[in-house]
Amino acid sequence: xxxxxxxxxxxxxxxxxxxxxPGTLLVLRRNALIADAVSHSVLPGIVLAYLVVKDLASxxxxxxxxxxxxxAVWLIEALQRSxxxxxxxATGLVxxxxxxxxxxxxxxxxxxxxxxxxxxxxxxxxxxxxxxxQVAGQDLGPRAFFVMAGVLALQVVLIATFFHEVQASSxxxxxxxxxxxxxxxxxxxxMTLTALTVVTAFDAVGSVLVVALMIAPGATARLWSRxxxxxxxxxxxxxxxxxxxxFALAWWSDSxxxxxxxxxxxxxFLLSWVLAPxxxxxxxxxxxxxxxxxxxLRTLCVHLLQHQDSPEADMECREDHLLQHVAWDxxxxxxxxxxxxxxxxVRRLDGRLLLTDAGRTLALDTLxx
Amino acid sequence: MGWWMDPTVQVLAAGACLMGALAGTVxxxxxxxxxxxxxxAVSHAALPGIVLAFWWTGSxxxxxxxxxxxxxxxxxxxxxxxxxxxTRLSEDTALGLLLAVFFGLGIALLSRVQQTADAxxxxxxxxxxxxxxxxxxxxxxxxxxxLLSVGALLGLFWKEWKQVLFDREYATTQGVPVRLLDLLLxxxxxxxxxxxxxxxxxxxxxAMLVAPAAGARQWTDRFGGMMxxxxxxxxxxxxxxTLVSAAVEHVPTGPASVIGVTCIAAASLLLAPxxxxxxxxxxxxxxxxxxxSPEALLQDFLALARAHGDRPAWHPREVFRLMAPGExxxxxxxxxxENRGWVRRDxxxxxxxxxxxxxxxxxxxxxx
Lengths: 369, 368
Description:
Largest sheet of chain A: 2 strands, antiparallel
Distance between the termini of chain B: 77 Å
CATH class of the largest domain in chain B: Mainly Alpha
Oligomer: heterodimer
Helix content of chain A: over 70%
C-alpha cells in the first residue's frame, strides 16, 4: 500500500469517528433524520459562499454551509411548533427544497463552478489527500485529516465538559429540565455541532453517505450497550473499524470508497442486529425458546402432581398418554420429558413418570404453595 | 411553432401531470399517517435495485430497471418494519439506516458497474437526479396504470382509509384490516417512487410526495378535499417545473419540479385562510379570535334565556354577534345549532332556543 493510500485511510477513519459522536446523540434523541436534513440543506450555503469567494478551500464555505444547515433546522422546528405540520412532513418539506435549490444553483453556474452534482452526493474521498496542509512551506499531510481531527477534538471536549447535561437531555429532556439543566441549550449546541460535522465531512463523503456514517455506528452501539459512555466509545470504535473495513472492501472490489464505507458500517449493524446479546435476533430467539421450555417443564410437573396420587394415575402419568393430554406436538413433548429427566425433576417407573422431590417443589412453587 | 407544440414536450407535460397527481394522492395518505419520510427512504433504497437489475439482466430497458427498484424498495420497507419490531430503535433511525446504507450499496455497485462502457451508455446515473427528457409515451401508460390502481385502492377502501388515518386504535377495534392497509400504503409509496424516479430522481423524489400534501393540508380539514387539492398542487408544481426545465437550458427537471411544489406549499402555509400564517397574524392584529363554536354559542342562548326568567325568547342575530365579538363564521355555528334542533329561526331572522335546546344547554352548562 502506498503512502498516499495510508493517508486516504487516515482521512476516512477520522471522518467516520467525527461523524459517529453527534450521530449517536441524534439516534438517542430519536432525531436521526435531522442528520439527513442538515446534510442536504448545507448545499445552497456552500454554493452561495463559493459564488462570493470563488475559492473551494475557503473557510467561508464552511460558515455559509453551517448557517444554511442551522436555518433548515430552525425552519423545520418552527413549522412543527406552529402546529401546521408534524415533524416528518416539516422535515420532508424543508430539506429537499434546500437541496433542490443548491442543485439548481450548481446546474445554472455549470461552466463556472468546479462543483458537480456527483461530488455533492458522493464526495471525493479518494482525492481528499491531494489537498495538503502546509505550514511555513512544510507539508504536514492532507488538510481534510487535520480539519476532521479538529472537529473530533472539539466534539470530545464539548461532550466531556457538558457530559451530564448531554447525557440527561439525550435520554429525557423533561427530566433534564427538572434538574436545572438546559436541554434547549444542549439541543442548539448539538444542532450546531451536527451542522459543522456534516459540512466538514461533506467534502470527503458527500451528502447521503455522511448520514450512514452518523446513524449506523450509533444505532449499532445502542444494540450492544445501554450505558451512555460505553455507547459513545463503541460508536467511535465501530465507525473507525467500519471505515477501515470499507476501505479494504473498496480496494478489493474496486468500487466507490464512500459507498463501500456505508456498506461496511451498515454490515456491522446487520451483524449486530443478529448477534448482539439481549437485543440481537439470535439471543431473542434463544431466550424465547428457553422461556417456552421452562414453562413446559412447570406444566409437566404440575400435571404429574395433580394426578400421581389419584386413582387414574396409571392412565394419566403414562408417558404416551401425557403426550396427547397436554396437546404438545410429540417431538417437543419428548424433548420436554427428556429435559425433565436430565434435570432430575421426574423419574421413570414402569412406563410411568413420577415426580422427584425437586419436581414436586417446582410444581408446588408454580401453584404458589 | 411554439415549443409547446413539440410532441416531446407534450409527453413530458403529460408525464409531469400524471406524476404530480400520483404523488399528491399517495402523499396525502403518508402525511396523515405521519410517514412523510417513508418516500425519502424508499427512493434512496431503490438505487441498488436499479443497478443490480442492470447487472443481472444487462438490460437498459426502463421497466426492467424499475422492477429492480421496486424490489429493493419493498425489501427496504419490510426490513424497516422488521427492525422496528425487534429493536428499541426509533422509526427515524430505522429509516435513516435504510436510506443511507442502501444508497451507499447502490453507489458502490454503481461505481463498480460503470467501469464498463456498456453501463455508461445505459446512463444509470440519470436516476440520481432524474431525466424527464428520457420519458417515452410508453412510460405514460405505466403512470396512468399506476394512477388508476391507486384510485381503485382508494375507492375500494375509502371508509377504511379514513378510519385508519384518523383513529387507528378505534379502527382496529372495528375490525378494519389495519395491517393490510399499512402494507398497501407501503406498496403504493414504493410504486409512486419507482414511477417517479425516472423523471425526478431518487434524491428528490420524496419532496414530490410531501410538499403537495403539506400544502393541501393548510386549506382544508377534510380527507377527500385534501386529497383532490394535493393532486392538483402536485400537477401544477411538477408541470411548472418540467416546462421551465424544458424551456431553460441547464435546468434539471427534478430540482425544478421540487422547487415548483415547494413554492405552492410555502404559499399555502403563508396564505391559506384558516391555517395560514398571514391570516392568523392578521386575525391576531385586528382582534378576531378563532371561529365561533356551537357549544359556546348555545351557552350564550342559555344566558339570554336565564335573563328572561328561564324562558326562551326571540333575539335578533346581532345580539349574538355582540356577545361573541370578533369570532369568525358565526353563521356556521348558528346553522349547526339549528340542524341539531336546538335553535329555531322565525321569518324575520330572529332566533330562539327550542325546549330541547334549553335542556341541552342546561346540561352542558359548566357548574360555577
